[in-house]
């Protein structure tokens, strides 16, 4: 661990030196030329651009049909593509490469119009609005759309990281992808933190019940990190929002990819995607299957001091050793279509179907010792269980864009239904101190059944005001229903029959509703930009225990107000300052509220608290961004204050048993600095370094004890990508987490679907490190095929260790899952563009084709 500390410290010093020696800043406003990742060489330009609009008569406003629209390269005026406008005046040029072009529009009786346009990764889909054709007048003023792709895109309230080229996550899941995203930390259970707190996880801009392990890495296009979300976004999530954007190809014709992979330890994956676009339809489908056998192990050393519940007693010791195996099978399917009513009206429908089946087994051995450390008893518990889930998500959306650029209205409906079931058997054999069996084994069976529905309805409206202003309005309603039944049966040792155990069984239902509305306004004055917004949310919650005929009255808290403010100042030499503020909320989830005790591990019990209050966070951050020719730098200072933070307290309730309960902390403050640098060390080698330095303080007061837990820590991540000869690419990702107090982490937010793993007022998580490497070889024509070899956690150092010390007990808790895995992945991309999309219309005005000087319709593709 010390070696890793020294290595990363050296990297940071080196980065500082590189930054200090960065090349001279180019003229203001000229951003560095972009290259293909680490290679330094410009790749073949993706052909995914689209330019569309409508031609109208300048005087009458009527559409101009069958006019000639041609796209020419600015470099040599060669024709790229073109078409004749439709009877309603619409035109749409698709499947365009990146670059600078001139659009030429002409029709008999009108003056020819020329427009300069630039297609970049940020402007692939451009609405040129209603273009007016004038008779015998001067040409329209030229319009130029520009933009350059930087190492990471920093908007006034969002940062976007392109993860499509991430090699080490190939064949994995969203969890593996996020391990490589700067500023994001992922523990061994897939729980995610950003700046030492949990974000809310969205999929395609909407909350989802999918867990990260249920989303294949190969289905992800990008990850959007919004550390201080504006009022437009849900107020849920302490450290903002992580939005996972799924791939949806928009190339014309037929395109797709197939892939398959194998990994050490019986790990297999396969999948593919297909996209067909022609005319008014864009149809897409995606399927992935993943079967990854995993193993895990863990140990617990615990000392209970002098009794429990305030009574005197001797010191007792407990040692536990766990060995587990899991055989999961995941299947992910997604299909849908976009129907273009015309250039400005689109209906989108998609359906996700996700299924999982697990077979797990665990062998848990427990050894009990007295104050003299002499073994007094032992037991061996073997658990076998089968778990399955099904998740169905239907999305329907409508989007209308106006002739006025950037003005749009959209409506979305999202319906999610999921179910899960578990059937497990526990076989517990008591042992004498010498290890021989004591009596008959105790057999227990448990089964559970859970169902949920999750519905969201929302509408959003954006309207540019003046030259630089923008007004955003929206409303959203969320409805969630959840039910769970958990039954336990013990076997009668005499009759062999299984009897229902009411004290260990439970059932629970809850319903929550969130009604929200927001308003945002943004504008710029010279180089100064601002955005102010307010979101109002009404939250309603109701729960019940049907078997006990207990109903908890609906909790209708007063409407919550969540303001946000963003200020930015652009400086000379490609620099910018930003100051952001937002108020957030984190409401307790089902697992924290459910009022029953979990006895799965008798020595480590957990209990919910229906009286938990929501936690509210005030978040403030100040950022500085600077771009040089080959260096991009982003530095942020942040402060976060949380009231009623959801935490846990562990208390001895027996000489060898701990009970963990959820409580609201009285105080939590966290502040720190985050630095991100991406630079091209030499031609062909890109390096991204992210460092988070933070101080946290957590205070909990109970009727019996007061707990204070505070400390300084840091987190660092390095991503290196090198382009090698012969179409090889080499990638290294390294992560180090220094020792830290047990910080808040809800496992990816309510949308992530994980059980809450909250802050703890007791304990320190020990530091850990990991290194992942991968190499890829591209081959065949146009690099259509690729072979990727990856090795995760090269030094096998990734694990979780919690050390807790209180007046009542001491505990060292270690868990490790299989992390050093070698994978080989093959992928093949195919595609054929449909030239019918660009053929001339054969109609009564076909003679107007002579006005268009086009070459081969497929030219430029």
UniProtKB/TrEMBL annotation:
Residues 1-20 form the signal peptide. It comes from the Bacteria. Residues 24-44, 409-438, 839-861 are annotated as: Disordered. Gene3D superfamilies: Carboxypeptidase-like, regulatory domain (2.60.40.1120), TonB-dependent receptor, beta-barrel domain (2.40.170.20), TonB-dependent receptor, plug domain (2.170.130.10). Residues 27-39 have a biased composition (Polar residues). It is found in: Cell outer membrane. Keywords: Cell outer membrane, Membrane, Signal. Coiled coil: none annotated. Its main location: membrane. Residues 173-241 form the TonB-dependent receptor plug domain. Pfam families: CarbopepD_reg_2, OMP_b-brl_3, Plug. Residues 400-828 form the Outer membrane protein beta-barrel domain. This is Outer membrane beta-barrel family protein. It comes from Chitinophaga defluvii.
């Amino acid at each position: 661990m010390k070696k890793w500390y020294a290595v990363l410290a050296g990297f940071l010093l080196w980065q500082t030196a590189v930054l200090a020696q960065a090349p001279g800043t180019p003229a203001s406003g000229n951003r560095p030329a972009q290259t293909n990742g680490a290679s330094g060489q410009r790749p073949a330009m993706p052909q995914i651009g689209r330019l569309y609009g409508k031609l109208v008569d300048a005087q009458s406003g009527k559409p101009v049909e069958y006019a000639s629209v041609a796209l020419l390269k600015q470099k040599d005026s060669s024709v790229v593509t073109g078409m004749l406008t439709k009877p309603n005046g619409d035109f749409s040029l698709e499947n365009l490469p990146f670059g600078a072009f001139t659009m030429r529009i002409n029709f008999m009786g009108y003056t020819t119009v020329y427009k300069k346009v630039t297609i970049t990764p940020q402007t692939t889909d451009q609405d040129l609005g209603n273009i007016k054709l004038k008779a015998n007048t001067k040409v329209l003023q030229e319009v130029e759309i520009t933009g350059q792709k930087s190492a990471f895109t920093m908007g006034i309230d969002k940062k976007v990281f392109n993860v499509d080229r991430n090699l080490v996550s190939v064949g994995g899941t969203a969890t593996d992808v996020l391990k490589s995203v700067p500023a994001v930390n992922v523990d061994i259970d897939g729980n995610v933190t950003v700046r030492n707190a949990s974000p809310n996880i969205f999929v395609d801009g909407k909350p989802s019940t999918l867990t990260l392990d249920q989303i294949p890495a190969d289905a992800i296009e990008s990850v959007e990190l919004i550390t201080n979300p504006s009022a437009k976004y849900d107020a849920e999530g302490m450290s903002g929002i992580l939005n996972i954007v799924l791939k949806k190809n928009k190339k014309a014709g037929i395109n797709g990819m197939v892939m398959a992979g194998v990994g050490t330890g019986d790990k297999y994956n396969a999948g593919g995607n297909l996209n067909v676009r022609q005319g008014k339809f864009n149809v897409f489908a995606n399927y992935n299957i993943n079967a990854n056998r995993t193993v895990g192990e863990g140990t617990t050393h615990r000392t209970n001091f002098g009794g429990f519940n305030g009574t005197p007693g001797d010191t007792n010791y407990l040692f536990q050793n766990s060995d587990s195996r899991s055989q999961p099978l995941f299947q992910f399917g997604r299909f849908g279509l976009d129907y273009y009513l015309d250039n400005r009206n689109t209906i989108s429908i998609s359906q996700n179907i996700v299924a999982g089946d697990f077979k797990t087994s665990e062998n848990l051995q427990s050894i009990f010792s007295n104050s003299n450390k002499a073994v007094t008893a032992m037991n061996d518990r073997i658990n076998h269980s089968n778990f399955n889930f099904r998740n169905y998500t239907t999305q329907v959306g409508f989007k209308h864009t106006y002739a006025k650029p950037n003005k749009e209205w959209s409506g979305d409906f999202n319906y999610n239904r999921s179910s899960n079931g578990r059937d497990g058997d526990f076989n517990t054999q008591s042992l004498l101190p010498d290890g021989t069996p004591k009596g008959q084994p105790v057999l227990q069976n448990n089964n559970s059944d859970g169902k949920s529905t999750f519905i969201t309805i929302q509408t959003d409206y954006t309207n540019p005001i003046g030259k630089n202003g923008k007004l955003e309005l929206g409303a959203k309603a969320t409805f969630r229903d959840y039910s769970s039944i958990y039954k336990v049966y013990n076997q009668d040792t005499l009759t062999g029959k299984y009897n229902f155990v009411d004290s260990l069984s439970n059932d629970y239902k809850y319903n929550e509703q969130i009604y929200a509305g927001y308003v945002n306004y943004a504008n710029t004055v010279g180089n100064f930009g601002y955005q102010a917004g307010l979101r109002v949310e009404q939250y309603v919650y109701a729960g019940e225990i049907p078997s006990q005929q207990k109903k908890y009255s609906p909790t209708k808290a007063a409407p919550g107000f969540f303001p946000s403010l963003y200020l930015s100042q652009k400086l000379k030499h490609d620099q910018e300052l930003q100051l952001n503020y937002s108020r957030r909320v984190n409401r307790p989830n089902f697992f924290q509220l459910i009022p029953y005790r979990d006895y799965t591990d008798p020595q480590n019990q957990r209990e919910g608290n229906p009286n938990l209050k929501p936690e509210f966070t005030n978040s403030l951050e100040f950022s500085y961004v600077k771009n040089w020719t080959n260096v991009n730098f982003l530095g942020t200072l942040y402060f976060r204050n949380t009231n009623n933070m959801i935490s846990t307290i562990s208390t001895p309730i027996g000489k060898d048993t701990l009970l963990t309960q959820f409580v609201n902390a009285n105080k939590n403050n966290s502040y720190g600095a985050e630095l991100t640098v991406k630079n091209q060390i030499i031609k062909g080698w890109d390096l991204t370094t992210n460092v988070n330095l933070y101080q946290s303080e957590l205070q909990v007061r109970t009727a019996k004890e007061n707990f204070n837990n505070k400390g300084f820590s840091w987190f660092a991540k390095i991503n290196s990508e090198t382009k090698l000869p012969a179409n090889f690419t080499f990638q290294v990702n390294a992560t180090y987490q220094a020792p830290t107090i047990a910080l808040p982490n809800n496992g990816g937010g309510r949308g992530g679907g994980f059980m809450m793993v909250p802050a703890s007022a007791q304990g320190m998580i020990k530091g850990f490190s990991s290194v992942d490497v991968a190499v890829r070889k591209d081959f065949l024509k146009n690099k259509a095929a690729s072979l990727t070899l990856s090795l995760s956690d090269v030094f096998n150092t990734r694990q979780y260790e919690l050390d807790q010390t209180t007046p009542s007990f001491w505990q060292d808790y270690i868990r490790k899952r299989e992390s050093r895995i070698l994978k080989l992945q093959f992928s093949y991309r195919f595609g054929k563009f449909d030239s019918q999309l660009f053929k001339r219309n054969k109609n009564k005005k076909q003679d107007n084709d002579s006005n268009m000087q086009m070459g081969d319709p497929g030219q430029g593709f």
